[in-house]
């Protein structure tokens, strides 16, 4: 794969909080332009920390990348402020669908466009484009976000990120606390955006079943280390891998297998 094909390269990243707690000790993966990569793993495996390393948001939480590199579009992200990364097209939707609850859905979306240059007509065109992808937001555009459902708030948070016209969209557990139908709706829309606009997407998910259905590739984290990377379609079919790393059997039940399966691709 040539470097030009890779929009994001995470290489042997180690990260700590308060110089004391090691959250990551060897996370590596590459995301190719125009693809969706799912970052999978159990609670506390290091997914959120990895995403914050990608967007250079760790220093804001007394965290730091202590070794390894993250390169976005070939450049080291640790040298750029998070706001510069947003302007360069790397936009993150944080865990927990942060919306301004006392603003309307549309005002929340417009807030996402602040800071970028753009005339009102251009902003209106972007709003319409987002309502095209998320019709429910169009219907609720005048409703206060605090009065919309969890799914609509997640859509608003994604829509707000889209107002910055990202080239790489980073999402932290978009499925959290939402019903299966809404989760499917959101992932279908992400897939559509990816296919129609070439948007690259990095999505951290505990819900590996849905993430593997919509992603091109997946990387599995275990205790702060990337232990496995492979094509999502391949991972989906490997019941041993799903059971061992993701706690799932093909029936979706929790499973506790005895033996560690052979790796698809060893990483790091
Ligand atoms: N701000 C912080 N300060 C100190 N330790 C932290 C902080 N944030 C996370 N950690 C620790 O880093 C490790 C990785 O956590 P992280 O949130 O990245 O995992 P995760 O896979 O995203 O889990 P979850 O699905 O629960 O969000 C955990 O041991 C966690 O306790």
From TrEMBL:
Q: Domain ABC transporter: where? A: 8-248
Which intervals of the chain form a coiled coil? Answer: none
SMART domains in alphabetical order: AAA
Any keyword Transport? yes
Q: Which UniProt keywords apply?
A: Amino-acid transport, ATP-binding, Nucleotide-binding, Transport
* The keyword Heme is assigned to this record: no
Under PROSITE patterns, the record lists: ABC_TRANSPORTER_2 (PS50893)
> Which GO molecular function entries does the Swiss-Prot or TrEMBL record give?
ATP binding
Pfam families found in the cross-reference section: ABC_tran
- Give the UniProt family note: Belongs to the ABC transporter superfamily.
What is the name attached to this protein's record?
Answer: ABC transporter ATP-binding protein
Q: Which organism is it from?
A: Mesorhizobium cantuariense
What does the record give as the organism's lineage?
Bacteria, Pseudomonadati, Pseudomonadota, Alphaproteobacteria, Hyphomicrobiales
